[in-house]
Amino acid sequence: MHKPRQALDEMMEHAKPLSARKIGLRKSLGLVTAREVKALIDHPPFDNSLMDGFAVRAGDLSGVNWKSPGELEVIETVRAGHMPAKKVASGFCARIMTGAPIPEGANAVVRLEDAEPGKDSVSFFNRVKEGSYVKKAGEDFWAGLVVLESGLPMNPARAALAAAAGHREVEVFPRPKVGIVVTGDELVEEGGELLPGKIYNSNGCALNNQVVEAGGWPMEYGIGADNLKSLQKLLQNAFDECDVVVTSGGAAMGEYDLIEDALKNLGASILFTEISQRPGRHMVAAVKDGKLFFGLPGNPAAMIICFEIYVRPIIRKILGFKECFRPRCVGSFNYVFEKTKGLTGWARVNVERAKGLCRLMPTATPRIGMLRSLAEGDGLAELPAELDAVTPETPVKVRLFGNPGE
Asked: Are 250 and 256 in contact (CB under 8 A)?
């Protein structure tokens, strides 16, 4: 029987990023750069105005004040996206819009609100420094500069930076296709007619969303019946088309738990079938043609927890993330929390932060099968295997699902 860390480490060794490919910046959100991105141009490509106002020669206004204003003749209006037509000589200025190129001869911009426009001239009451409200060419970056390192997850700002640097695409590690097969004759697709003895397929819904949240591309293959031949066909289809395959149910030791047999018949190499943890003791991991397989428990809450602990980090590693794990904190319970000695426990908790400490409160019920308690939790607490109870003095590691309170 594998210990949780041993199981995860073994699977992580088999996880490798997929071959990098170029993708449009508008579709790059959440993907990780496989190669550094260099600027193709200077940015901005020309000196431009940071404000609406007037492009002037700073020396023309060196002696002005409120008692003795300076007056300059306006020669043209320069709009953003249009090049100036005239040179600004001494005694003249140009009206200019934000982002517009600075005319030749001008070296400063006076804000519109700091001037008093007339019919054909403008009065100025304050001196101005050379370079005021002027953004110089190449001030943000210059051609050849590395603007994005490899190994960075793309976000809106990074996509904008790459676009400003002259790129339409970025080379990234693609999203892995994750095949999903839920098993069990008792399952009915959500919203369907619920006949006696049947339950809704909450597992397929959960797995689909977990794959998306992790950054993968879910591909559902429907409900697998408790029939070996039928199950093998679904699994083979998933292996043929996907990079990772995940199932729920059929991973234990009952008469109709057929996952292990199906994998062996397909030529997969079994890594392990049990982990010393609760929930999720019976979980099958395998490799087929270099692709990882996860046979998760059929119990919905146990399945969600096992995906969080084992599958999510694998998807993140395949995506190329340097950090594959959730943010963590160390906290403690307010009372004695009993568990099974010899098994690592996973407890759904709410996390309350106060004065730098994390106080942990189990959600509504500790029963393994209660989805509601999992849905209400902020995180997942790891309870040490060697203990039969966790006391308020016991430090506990917690994986945080998001910001506490979300």
From this structure: yes
Q: Provide the pLDDT for residue 200.
A: 87
Residue 301: φ, ψ to 5°: -65, -40
pLDDT digits (tens, 9 = 90+) for 263-299: 999 999 999 999 999 999 999 999 999 999 999 999 9
CA-CA distance, 335 to 357, in Å (whole number)? 16
Q: Does 337 have pLDDT greater than 90?
A: no
| Radius of gyration over every alpha carbon of the chain, rounded to an integer in angstroms | 31
CA dist 91 and 344 (Å) reads: 81
What angle is formed at CA 108 by the lines to CA 103 and CA 111, rounded to 5 degrees?
105
82 CB burial (10 A radius; 0-12, 13-18, 19+): exposed
- Residues near 167 by Cβ (< 8 Å), separated by ≥ 6? 25, 37, 40
DSSP-assigned beta bridge partners for residue 372: none
Rounded Cα distance between 213 and 404, Å, is 17
CB proximity list for 67: less than 8 A, separation 6 or greater: none
Contact 221, 237 (CB under 8 A): yes
Q: Is 204 left (phi over 0), alpha (psi -120 to 50) or beta?
A: alpha
| DSSP for residue 337 | E
3-class SS letters over 205-240: HHHHHHHHHHCCEEEEEEEECCCHHHHHHHHHHHHH
Place of tokens 């069990």: 184
Sign of CA dihedral 11, 374, 385, 334: positive
Instruction: Render the burial of 107-145: b for 16+ CB within 10 Å, e for the rest.
Output: bbbbbbebbeeeeeebebbebbeeebbbbebbebbeeee
Name the 3-class secondary structure at 73.
strand
**Which DSSP helix (H) or strand (E) runs through 180?**
strand 177-183
d(CA 88, CA 73): 10
**Contact of 170 with 28, CB cutoff 8 Å:** yes
